[in-house]
Amino acid sequence: MSIRRHGRKALGVIAVSAVIALTACSGGGQAAPTAQPTLSSDPVTISFAWWGNDARAEATLKIIDAFEAKYPNITVEPQGTDFASYFDKLATQTAGGSTPDAMQMQDVYLRTYANNGTLLDLDSVNSILDESGYSDSALSTGKIDDTLYALPVSLSAQAMFVNERILKASGVKLPDDDTWTWDDFADFAKKISDAGNGAYYGADITRAFGPAQLEDWARQSGDQTFDADGDLVIKKETLSSYFQFYLDLQNSGAGQPAAQTVENWNGGQTSYPSMTGNAATVSLAFNWIAQLTTATGDPFLILKTPTKDGEPPATFNRANFYWSISSKSKHPAEAALFLNFFVNDPAAIELTGTERGLPVNTTALDLLQPNLSDNDKAQLEYADRIKDFVGAPYIVPPASSTTVDAMLQTYVEAVLFEQQTPDEAADGFIKDMQAAIDDAK
Amino acid sequence: MSSLGELRRVAKSAKGAVEDKAARTKDNKAAYLFLLPWLIGLGLITIIPMVSSLVLSFTDYNLLRAPSFNGLDNWIHMLSDEHLQNSLRVTFTYVFISVPLQLGFALALAVLLNRGLRGLAFYRSIYYLPSLLGTSVAIAVLWRAVFGGEGLVNQVLAVFGINGESWIGSPDTALSTLVVLNVWTFGSPMVIFLAGLRQIPEGYYDAAQVDGAGAWTRFTRITLPLLTPIIFFNLVLQVVHTFQAFTQAFVISGGTGGPLDSTLFYTVYLYKRGFGNFDMGYASALAWLLVLIIAAFTAINFWAAKYWVFYDD
Predict the structure, then answer these.
(1) Which CATH fold would you assign to the domain A33-153+320-381?
(2) Where would I find the H helices in A297-331?
(3) Which helix (DSSP H) or strand (DSSP E) does residue B25 occupy?
């Protein structure tokens, strides 16, 4: 018995440490320094937190070594974790007053952390952290109320991937992605499913659960999910047409049945049917090309996402992730120096390569240009194809944004299992989401 | 002082030979010294956090900012929280179905194993194994593989021409797979039942057999009544335990409690509120409600025990 309890205790300890931390915690605060901080010549230790796999950790540690060799008075304490536990840990550390000095950040959490005064205004250290390689539009993905809280690492836009092996096997003709509509896409996916006769499906319906897919749909309807202030603005019709589209896709047989979709979505990205070679198409951000080809061993085409009525697409950029600095850092100058090294130093750029996506920092991208892989080139080519259609960047979701995923999941499930009509689900989503946003204010 | 001397002193005072107050105080001091690591642990990772979370349950606390008191807001909100009501429904269903099944299964196997089987130690270990692994992430992952759409169960069904859908992906069956997982970890109550069965004097059975009692009569008239204290012990323990189930549902549903909230255990909901919605004040209140629920069920169990538990002494 005691042993069975340990598993649960481990979780208890996480919660508990959050609570203990409270007694010592002094919480919020703001006060971005007006003057630029200066570098110390005394020994300084800063902490740096990131998420990712072992290969990324290895490269990151090498970058830290190179940085420490260049600046011998600064020691960087590495805090690498897997993504699943990263934000639980960060929340707990922040509650305990030990936020890492420099850290990786994601858009769904950015507004929450920024609004609670935990992140440093990066323009307050821009004499050390050189932002000149970043375009204004790139930087705008990391801004909340005109303050730069996060430096984007790589950007990507939505695309439609097609598995070439399955396409060939099915014998279905590929539509022209310059003109195709969602109806054309549904038709195309259904034909592939029919040809596969159970061996593979045309569409990967797990994508219905993705907030970025919803945003993509909304943009093409001249709508968006949230406005710049983080308020919910999406129209009911936009939502219900989105739900209806995926329901039809499922019921036509273009995608797998609901129970299988839910299982694969809950199983994480490695179990998406497109990642296991069971679905011919998938709507994802274009930086997924490497994961898709590695997971399936198949070549993929990157196509434009279909549009609502065949008009030119309206799309958007979204930061894959960012770097941020803690507003509580005792050494903001050194933290900025480290991030500057990470994004601008040639040695660090070479060590990172394109493993964290194609760098949005043009200094880095120029340096990497000669050694880009085919997958990297395909991404650049796609980015170039759609560059005229890219609108305002994905609006950093509101403070309660971590619930966007959960809420979308609730209502997509209700629709796919036909517990609610798309109209009912659209009403429910708007009501719940609005309540959550009000709650967070 | 040497530990041997300490032992001797303890032995002496145990005999009542020494009525030396000073010595006893000294013994107590030594005892506390040895208990110190545990006491520190108890204070730091149990008592202080529990008290803190009680305080937090009366606050609005998002983890990132200092908490601010909001009186009974969290507690009042619980009354109208549909997700909470749903998670209670799921958790109660889970407890009420899986605990009796698990204990029944454990008892049946304990009785079988108690019949002087050769290699008992081996079987006991084998059957105990799931108890050790049952709440681990690895087993929850394995369960996905067994009850998934293309999992073991459906592959077996396919042999008989039945085309099963995903058991863990369907809102009608997802919770049942978790019940099966819990029943499968019957090992620890089984070991306790086995120990209990050993305590029943052979003489009772011999006498009953002489009087012509069959196997079933012996089981219902001798084994069950004499085993009630052990059943009671296991029942209390498993109810407390099962109310707090987390890992299985969390891993199998990918942290969502889905599909359609059908596996939204109380603790999973608590976690989602605390770390997903950054609503740690409310999550703390939820944690205390769970403490109250478990305390109430334990109290009911103890009260009901008067009517069915039989102590043979």
Answers:
(1) D-Maltodextrin-Binding Protein; domain 2 (3.40.190)
(2) none
(3) helix B21-42
Task: Write the residue in A16, A91, A417 that is nearest to B49 by C-beta.
Answer: A16
Tell me which residue of A52, A45, A50 sits closest to A77, measured CA to CA.
A45
Task: For strands A279-285 and A158-163, give the pairing.
Answer: antiparallel
What is the residue-wise DSSP string for A338-384? HHHHHHH-HHHHHHHTTTT-SBSSHHHHHHHGGG--HHHHHHHHHHH
Which of B66, B131, B256 minimises the CB distance to A4? B131
Q: CA geometry: angle at B123 spanning B120 and B126, to 5°?
A: 150
Q: In 10 A of CB B117, how many CB atoms?
A: 12
Rounded to whole angstroms, how far apart are CA atoms B191 and B109?
Answer: 10
State how far the Cα of A99 lies from the Cα of A326, in Å rounded to an integer.
6
Determine contact: A131 vs chain B, CB below 8 A: no
Would you call A435 an interface residue with chain B, using a CB distance cutoff of 8 Å?
Answer: no
Q: Which CATH superfamily is domain A158-315+400-440 in?
A: Periplasmic binding protein-like II (3.40.190.10)
Nearest CA in chain B to A91: B63
What b/e sequence results for A336-374 when a residue is b if at least 16 CB atoms lie within 10 Å of its CB, and e otherwise? bbbbbbbbbbeebbbbbebebbbbbbebbbeebeeebee
Residue ranges making up the domain that contains B228: 73-308
Residue among A26, A94, A403 minimizing CB distance to B277 = A403
pLDDT at A241 over 50: yes
- CATH code of the domain containing B159: 1.10.3720.10
Closest chain A CA to residue B190 = A1
Sign of CA dihedral B238, B240, B245, B246: negative
pLDDT in tens, A278-313: 999 999 999 999 899 999 999 999 999 999 887 777
In angstroms, rounded to a whole number, what is the distance separating the alpha carbons of residues B81 and A290?
43
Q: Is the CB of B49 less than 8 angstroms away from the CB of A419? A: no
Q: Measure A150 CA to nearest chain B CA, in Å.
A: 17
The domains of chain A are located at 33-153+320-381, 158-315+400-440
Which residues of A are less than 8 Å from B185 in CB distance?
Answer: 4
Secondary element (H or E) of residue A147: strand A147-148
The gap between the terminal CA atoms of chain A, to the nearest Å, is: 44
pTM of the model: 0.85
Q: Give the CA radius of gyration of chain A.
A: 23
Q: What is the rounded CA–CA span in Å between residue A106 and residue A95?
A: 18
pLDDT digits (tens, 9 = 90+) for A374-429: 999 999 999 999 988 888 888 767 766 567 888 899 999 999 999 999 999 999 99
